[in-house]
Design brief:
The structure holds two protein chains of two kinds.
Chain A: H1 2-15, H2 17-20, H3 23-48, H4 56-72, H5 77-99, H6 104-124, H7 126-129, E1 135-136, H8 144-171, H9 173-183, H10 185-190, H11 195-221, E2 223-224, H12 226-229, H13 232-245, H14 252-270, H15 275-289, H16 293-301
Antiparallel strand pairs in A: 1-2
Helix pairs in contact in A: 1-8, 3-8, 3-9, 3-11, 3-13, 3-14, 4-5, 4-6, 4-11, 4-13, 5-11, 8-9, 8-11, 9-11, 13-14, 13-16, 14-15
Chain B: E1 3-14, E2 17-28, E3 32-36, H1 43-51, E4 58-63, E5 66-67, H2 73-78, E6 81-84, H3 96-106, H4 113-127, H5 142-155, E7 160-164, H6 172-187, E8 191-195, H7 199-205, E9 208-213, E10 216-221, H8 223-227, H9 230-237, H10 239-243
Parallel strand pairs in B: 3-8, 3-9, 6-7, 7-8
Antiparallel strand pairs in B: 1-2, 1-4, 4-5, 9-10
Helix pairs in contact in B: 3-4, 3-5, 4-5
Classes of the chains: A mainly alpha, B alpha/beta.
């Protein structure tokens, strides 16, 4: 109940942002929502089931391209976003069947290859995907402020949906089973968990919202090309966010999304030439000194609130 | 009596090693069967074959009318076949009650997590772990973790329960307590296979013994018959002792 209340309050506060914030604030908030979707999604498979997936970029890029191709063939924008989510879901179910029997590092490497593979496929089909030249998306007939608000609300709605799924998942039989798998997969098998089906379901769930976020992103920036939407950083950042916030928790990934974005902005402004290196150092320091994430630190300091999970 | 579990010519090779070699026996409903044998005789491998952890390379296993020879472990578990592990396998960072609830939830007896927790509490009460319900499983003592294994298996409502050395590493008081629990489980009509090193323990609770040596079944019968069997004495103590003992052959 407390989780739903927290979600409702945060969503309501964010929804009021256009009343006080300028377009820059809206762009940052939309990015936080997008990061939050990615981090929450990664947490389904990486945090709950303990399978370190690097496939986020694959789902993101797949969603972006699926939506772009559909829209260039005349499908309206919002149905195209939904189809992008469905495409990512089906792709993950298929992919999960192929690589989820691998464990640990082997799974990580196999999932890392997927985005590269999709990027090459896009590159080799220029008639269909625009190849290396990228693809343009239909422009919205809205003012600059109207567009900023529209995409902010779209990302916010998606983020709320993702967090709501996380709350439901944590209480569900599926979530329980994924936690069992994370802690001892053989023991999970022997007490009657169909581990293969559970992992595949978790992996598919980790793809669907990322696919939609890729589709919204594509409409937002109006132009996508393979290096942008299949960027390996899209796979790495969600893990960093989850580790910053708290692995396997409900709000940890979203808190991590906020921290990472603030860090990125601060570093980018002050160390323009070396910002990637500076960000890397900060992340290493944070993960070394906050190994269980910020939520764990808060719980240690305020044990009375530990039951509030 | 009808056979609940039937093994027929079951074998398992690991490369050139025949860990289990052409083993056949039945376990009847409501029976307590002791599975004994010297170290490395294939007892745990045999349990792994029955539960589907390793597939058998030959022969077949039948449980309650179902052929379970090459079934996946989770399917076998859902048919009502539970086991404990010699090396305990808890979900370490989950609480004791969650560990047991997992057993109830995934074998289809609880429809949701809440109901599974309620069932788990009963089994914690039964195994004497109720006071530790909210501690992480990893913080239990060895005796506690062995009981947790037992509670987790019981929450699956098994028809056949296989106990792989639940008493290993326990002191004599803890063993007495564990035996009392096993007897109570048997009274509820659960069929039990006990793997045990401690002869005193296995002789006192088993209706029947099955003896493995080098992966082969060398004797089966009542405890009295088996301890007098020449091949059994030979396997445990060597040929010299077997010759000096006027054993009863079965």
């Amino acid at each position: 109940m407390r989780n739903w209340l927290a979600l409702a309050v945060i969503a309501a506060l964010l929804a009021a942002l256009p009343l006080v914030g300028n377009n820059y604030a809206l762009r940052l908030a939309a990015t936080v929502c997008m990061y939050s979707v990615m981090a929450q999604s990664w947490n389904f498979i990486g945090g709950l089931a303990g399978y370190p997936s690097f496939a986020t970029a694959a789902f993101f890029g797949l969603g972006a391209y699926a939506s772009a191709i559909l829209q260039n063939h005349g499908v309206p924008m919002v149905p195209a976003w939904a189809c992008a989510g469905l495409a990512a879901l089906l792709f993950a179910a298929f992919l999960g069947g192929a690589i989820l029997h691998l464990r640990g590092h082997y799974f990580a490497i196999a999932s890392l290859i997927v985005a590269e593979m999709l990027r090459e496929i896009v590159n080799t089909l220029p008639d269909f995907t625009g190849g290396g030249k990228g693809m343009n998306l239909p422009l919205l007939n809205l003012s600059v402020t109207g567009q900023a608000q529209f995409f902010f609300y779209s990302m916010l709605a998606l983020a709320v949906l993702t967090v709501a799924s996380a709350i439901v998942l944590h209480r569900s039989k599926l979530g329980f089973g994924l936690r069992c798998i994370q802690q001892n997969e053989s023991a999970a098998d022997i007490i009657g968990i169909n581990t293969y089906a559970y992992k595949t379901a978790g992996f598919s769930l980790s793809a669907v919202f990322v696919g939609v976020s890729g589709a919204i992103y594509a409409s937002w920036v109006n132009y996508i090309d393979p290096p942008d939407v299949f960027d390996v950083l899209i796979s790495v950042k969600p893990m960093v966010m989850v580790l910053l916030g708290g692995l396997g928790t409900i709000f940890g990934p979203s808190i991590g999304a906020v921290i990472l974005l603030l860090l990125e902005e601060a570093v980018w402004r002050n160390f323009l030439t070396i910002h990637v290196a500076a960000l890397g150092v900060i992340i290493v320091v944070l993960v070394l000194f906050l190994p269980n994430g910020l939520l764990a630190l808060i719980r240690e300091r305020f044990p009375a609130k530990a039951m509030a999970k | 009596m009808t056979a609940l579990l039937t093994l027929d010519g079951v074998s398992r090779r690991f490369g050139g090693l025949k860990a289990v070699d052409d083993v056949s026996f039945d376990v009847n409903e409501s029976e307590i069967v002791g599975l004994i044998g010297p170290n490395g005789s294939g007892k745990t491998t045999l349990i792994n074959l029955i539960t589907g952890v390793h597939p058998a390379t030959a022969g077949y296993v039948r449980f309650d009318g179902h052929d379970i020879t090459r079934q996946r472990p989770y399917r076998i578990a859902r048919l009502g076949l539970a086991r404990t592990f010699q090396i305990v396998q808890p979900f370490p960072r989950m609480t004791v009650v969650e560990n047991v609830a997992a057993g109830a939830l995934f074998c289809g007896h609880a429809s949701d997590v809440r109901e599974a927790r309620a069932i788990a509490r009963e089994h914690l009460e039964f195994t004497g772990l109720a006071d530790m319900a909210h501690r992480p499983a990893a913080t239990l003592t060895l005796a506690g973790r062995k009981r947790l294994e037992l509670a987790k298996s019981l929450a699956m409502r098994p028809r056949l329960l296989m106990l792989d050395e639940v008493n290993a590493g326990l002191n004599s008081t803890e063993i007495e307590e564990a035996l009392a629990i096993i007897r109570k489980i048997a009274e509820q009509g659960v069929t039990i296979i006990v793997i045990e090193h401690l002869m005193k323990v296995v002789l006192s609770i088993s209706h029947r013994l099955v003896v493995l040596h080098h992966g082969q079944l060398i004797a089966q019968g009542t405890p009295r018959e088996v301890v007098a069997d020449k091949r059994v004495i030979e396997a445990y103590l060597g040929a010299k002792y077997a010759a000096g003992n006027p054993g009863v052959s079965n």
